[in-house]
Amino acid sequence: MAQTLKLWIAGKPVEAKSGRSAEVFNPATGEVVRQVPLAGKADVDAAVAAAKAAFPAWRDTTPLRRARILTRFRELMERHREELTQLASEEHGKTLEDAAGSVQRGIEVIEFASGVPHLLKGEQAEDVGRGVDCHSILQPVGVCAGITPFNFPVMVPLWMFPVAIACGNTFVLKPSERVPSCSLRMAELFKEAGLPDGVFNVVPGDKTAVDALLHHPDVGAVSFVGSTPVAKYIYETGARNGKRVQALGGAKNHAVVMPDADMEFTADALVGAAYGSAGERCMAISTVVAVGEAGDQLLPLLKERAARIKVGAGNVAGVEMGPVITAAQRDRIVSLIDSGVAQGAELVLDGRGLKPAGLDKGFFVGPTLFDQVRPEMDIYREEIFGPALIVLRADSYEAALRLVNANPYGNGTAIFTGSGHWARRFQHEIEVGMIGINVPIPVPMAFFSFGGWKASLFGDLHMHGMEGVYFYTRTKVVTSRWPAPAERMANGLVMPTLG
Ligand code: NAD
């Protein structure tokens, strides 16, 4: 009998009023492991009301005291690292080792947010005019909402709520309905760390819950991570309702491989970046642009390594790649592979039909590799979000650059080269938010900000790092003068020009 989850509102588990629920699968076995409630409008209203009620006291809790609760939360997260890793792997399918890495990267955002007394310091200038000083203050927005995707059950929620809460906001998280358990568990741990009830609320759900958040008059800011069509919808709808929005979308991340790259090193890096987490990372390298003779050298090395990847259940020792998230996603990937063959790409390694022993009902696709892909093919145009790597050929660095810059997405990219010249030009000329130089998955550390360009981000500010702090705060600028006794203003009817 699958466990039935609840919502988390005002510091306790709550039954959903909506009466709706969904199945949560273990994608390796295809079995239902839990039932998750799908929050309705009344449930979202209750969560926002709890967050709104908790806001005044939390805002007035000093940043230092907030930071201490975050530090205790980080300690509890470390103590429960194993349990969260297991949960993430079970509901997502990724290997335990990979899940553990993503839990660690999430914990590092809590670590960053624990420095909030320092991060909230504004700017100050003496004598902006004669006898006039100026300083700025960063104050919280109010109730913030987060909407997260399935592919990082721990890390992506942690990009948002620790920073928002550290800044003095209260938060309602709508995690992916496919991987709800980690968010609910983190809410329990945050309470155990001393977080007052109502500051952090979790409402698993689908579009109904998202729409309720986007239209709620008491939600001041919305953070979203997910696919591009939904990101655009969230941005437009949130903005129309007067909210500040940051909406991170999908990706098609290219690696440009120059002929002077160390090909063995590059092949190792690309295989990890393409097939790790079954390609279900927004920073996965899904596309290689091989320049000149790089392609002929690289292809056999990629094929040999990809063919050796051990596929199975993520919790089994030695397994390197797990299943994809749902049967529907498996079928979508397979039909994209079919289209690649039909449209004339060269299928070097075929992952269709792979069934690891004893996992007949699991949602598996094996590592797949295409060569001779052209930009008009569907496998280039679509974000596959699965274990399929495609290789395009380019005659020159300039042709490779044009190709990457013409792509509508701009999340991450990498160049593999032995030359500082190409690397330096690439970082300057490429229109992408996060760039690796001989680094395949350049996910910025928590104290830098994470975000793409173009169709990979709708909004102005990236997540965590200082951009996260600016997203979750409003700036006040105070100009002050302390006149001497009997001092008089000059003509007050004239626009003041200080100085
Ligand atoms: P998704 O867009 O289907 O879902 C994301 C969230 O939006 C979920 O919480 C979901 O319940 C909700 N949602 C889904 N459809 C909706 C709709 N029509 N209206 C309102 N809300 C809706 O994405 P996913 O399949 O969970 O995640 C994979 C996608 O996320 C990929 O495109 C991947 O590239 C992207 N992603 C991007 C980043 C990034 O940082 N840019 C990071 C991780 C994942």
Overview of this protein structure:
The protein has helices at 41-59, 63-79, 81-92, 96-113, 116-119, 155-166, 181-192, 207-215, 228-240, 263-275, 294-308, 327-342, 378-381, 397-406, 420-429, 465-471, and strands at 3-4, 7-9, 12-14, 21-26, 31-37, 124-129, 132-140, 143-147, 170-174, 200-202, 219-225, 244-248, 253-257, 285-291, 346-349, 368-371, 388-394, 409-410, 412-416, 434-437, 453-454, 457-458, 473-481. With 499 residues, it is an alpha/beta fold. The protein has two domains: 3-249 and 456-478, Aldehyde Dehydrogenase, Chain A, domain 1 (3-Layer(aba) Sandwich), CATH 3.40.605; 253-437, Aldehyde Dehydrogenase, Chain A, domain 2 (3-Layer(aba) Sandwich). The protein starts with a strand and ends in an 18-residue tail after the last strand. The mean pLDDT is 97. The structure holds nicotinamide-adenine-dinucleotide (NAD).
**How does the major sheet shape up?**
7 strands, mixed
Rg, Cα atoms, Å: 25 Å
Distinct small molecules: nicotinamide-adenine-dinucleotide
* CATH topology-level fold name of the largest domain: Aldehyde Dehydrogenase, Chain A, domain 1
CATH first level of the largest domain: which class?
A: Alpha Beta
User: What CATH architecture label of the largest domain applies?
Assistant: 3-Layer(aba) Sandwich
How confident is the prediction overall: mean pLDDT?
A: 97
Question: Which of globular, elongated, flat, extended, rod-shaped describes the shape?
Answer: globular
Cα distance, first to last residue?
74 Å
Structural class: alpha/beta
In the sheet with the most strands, the strands line up as 15-16-17-14-13-19-20
Q: Count all strands and give the number.
A: 23
Helix content: 25-40%
Which blocks of ≥5 consecutive residues have pLDDT under 50? none
Query: How many discrete structural domains?
Result: 2
Question: What is the tally of helical segments?
Answer: 16
Strand content: 15-25%
CATH superfamily of the largest domain: Aldehyde Dehydrogenase, Chain A, domain 1
